[in-house]
């Protein structure tokens, strides 16, 4: 009986542990919310620095990792372009290489399998590797390459379940396409659907596939729709699904408008025209109750008010400045802001970390200490963990801080990873780190153009 009691206690203990552990199965975590709910996390970093559990060599890429079911999934690119190349060079020359997705053992970093496919980065700005974080759902991982390959793979062995080639299947001409950024938005699982930004014709800016078979279920938004023009692409924002007015709504931030669709059918619920320059729809839209917030590098912030009775939205306020330098609100670019308890926190165009009143857009405070440097595109990614925030800046540092209307309170800071990516502008450290990490199983998983690492963030027992 005593032995049985010991086994029962051990079983229950393992059960409790598994409840507290959390996966990071897609971009910005489950639901794409930028929220990490795990407990048992350290309060501050050790004076000796962070402890790296493992390091695994990889190639170049901007895409962050996904972590699920004991595996880490990450993409990279080799050949045709290197991290030392000029990321702003768009000359249409041959930049043929291979994109790849790797599955690693979460505890050891050992490569379990890899799958690769050809890609040519000719004409693409910032062509140093894939952008889209893999999306894991059940026994499948969905990977979208920079030049329009979409693969559904078996998580155990990397075998192809189904795949799409946007150039062949949807008439996307990669040699003459209008958008220079490559495919960046991570595919989204919604129920039985996999929703992807395709930019094809006819009427295929966004397409929903059966996530199990790859069969097309619906397509939506023609290039010449009334809020768009034929020479404008899909932008780079990742699609999200929100709940508002008792309705599931697929939110797409396109270069000409913010659009809400029925994720089950592709039918348009509402559209809010908002033309932004250079298709820099980089940050993910953020919902907070009845508010939906977006921020652009030049055009600044846009706050939408979501209707409580029907799927609809209206402009609550927007920024007054169309300058990346003379900014009145929050002109974010690389990293998505956080909207919490009526306030917005995020990194502005030249690295100013700011707080805004979410209901009015009024700036509350500003600090430069997060990024350390007032430089174009200086950035920091924000993830909320209970009552504090983990922030990784583009200098390769990880910060624990508390954010409130009263100001920025830094708790701890440590070196996380070496910046290796050329930013295309002069910087103090020459290179930057522009990757959104994954937080899972009391660890942070981070990559640069040379390696991916797992670092413990567990507190003392």
What is the strand and helix layout of this fold?
Elements: H1 2-20, E1 52-57, E2 66-68, E3 71-78, E4 96-105, E5 111-120, E6 135-137, E7 140-144, E8 149-154, E9 160-165, H2 166-170, E10 188-190, E11 193-200, E12 204-210, E13 216-220, E14 240-244, E15 247-254, E16 257-261, E17 268-273, E18 286-288, E19 291-296, E20 300-306, E21 313-318, E22 338-340, E23 343-347, E24 353-357, E25 363-367, E26 380-385, E27 388-393, E28 397-404, E29 407-415, E30 438-440, E31 443-447, E32 451-456
Antiparallel strand pairs: 1-32, 2-3, 3-4, 4-5, 6-7, 7-8, 8-9, 10-11, 11-12, 12-13, 14-15, 15-16, 16-17, 18-19, 19-20, 20-21, 22-23, 23-24, 24-25, 26-27, 27-28, 28-29, 30-31, 31-32
Mean pLDDT: 91
- For the termini, the CA-CA separation is 29 Å
Task: Give the helix tally.
Answer: 2
Outline the biggest β-sheet: 4 strands, antiparallel
Output the strand order for the largest sheet. Answer: 1-32-31-30
Give the low-confidence spans: 1-19, 225-231
Under the CATH scheme, the architecture of the domain at 289-333 and 335-433 is Beta Barrel
Structural class: mainly beta
The CATH class of the domain at 289-333 and 335-433 turns out to be Mainly Beta
- The helix content is under 10%
Q: Per CATH, what is the topology of the domain at 289-333 and 335-433?
A: Lipocalin
Q: Radius of gyration, Cα only, in angstroms?
A: 21 Å
C-alpha geometry: globular
What portion of residues belong to β-strands?
35-45%
DSSP E strands, number? 32
